Amino acid sequence: MAEKSPLAIITGAGGGLGAACAKALADDGYAVTLLDRDKATLDAAAEGLVESGAEVDTIAVDLLDADAVTEAITGYPGRSRLRALVNCAGLISLGGITDITVEDWDRVVGVKLRGDFLTCRAAVPIMVANGGGAIVNISSMSGRTKSVLTAPNYVASNSGVIGLTMTLAAQVARQGVRVNAIAPGMIDTPMLGAYSSEQLDGIRSAVPMGRFASAAEIAAVASFLVSDKASYITGETLNVNGGMFMV
Questions:
Q1: What is the pTM of this model?
Q2: Cα distance between the two ends of the chain
Q3: Looking at residue 8, what DSSP letter applies?
Q4: How far apart are CA 151 and CA 153, in angstroms?
Q5: Which residues are annotated as catalytic?
Q6: Is pLDDT of 158 > 80?
Q7: Which of the listed residues 22, 41, 81, 129 has the most CB atoms within 10 Å of its CB?
Q8: How far apart (Å, rounded) are the C-alpha atoms in residues 206 and 142?
Q9: How confident is the model at residue 1 (pLDDT cuts 50, 70, 90)?
Q10: Is pLDDT of 3 > 70?
Q11: d(CA 244, CA 115)
Q12: Any idea what DSSP says for residue 112?
């Protein structure tokens, strides 16, 4: 009997960057399980992958529901094949401290930072029990520096993801699990719709490369980080922003 493909779970996979990461990992030979809140967008994302010959499954789950997130990962029938987790889910939020409500704060921080915590907490024991794996958490350039346009809840959640990534990486490195993050700049996805055309023009003019990233370009970095080519990289946050932010 042929050995089954390793499994990758991708959150926020109904579109945008999550769908691009799912495609990249499917192209790498992974069976992919797509997690997102909306079943219709999940089904649409899965359709194209199935047509390309990928092994695909979908689970509609709200990342604010801790029990549902845990069950989606630990209760998944193919969980013993889990080798990669890519956390792409997130919500954009613009404005200043007085523009956001407590509910706004909880929702944005909940989906991004709490959501990543929940998926990592569920996935790590499975990976450890089955020989290791790799986790990639998608943060943001704004989680590494100041931001005038994005709101404090967005910046704080993405900054927190970087802290989560480093701490978890240090704790599980000797158990065969690598954990890294990507801090993208602006990506050409539907999230750009939150900005005005004037705001987008201003941001684009500040990018040394003069353009925004495609989702596929960020997904290629996620593909690298979960691969054996990155076997000695853990606890890192890779800046992928066309030169807009450098350290």
A1: 0.95
A2: 49
A3: E
A4: 6
A5: 154
A6: yes
A7: 22
A8: 14
A9: very low
A10: no
A11: 27
A12: I
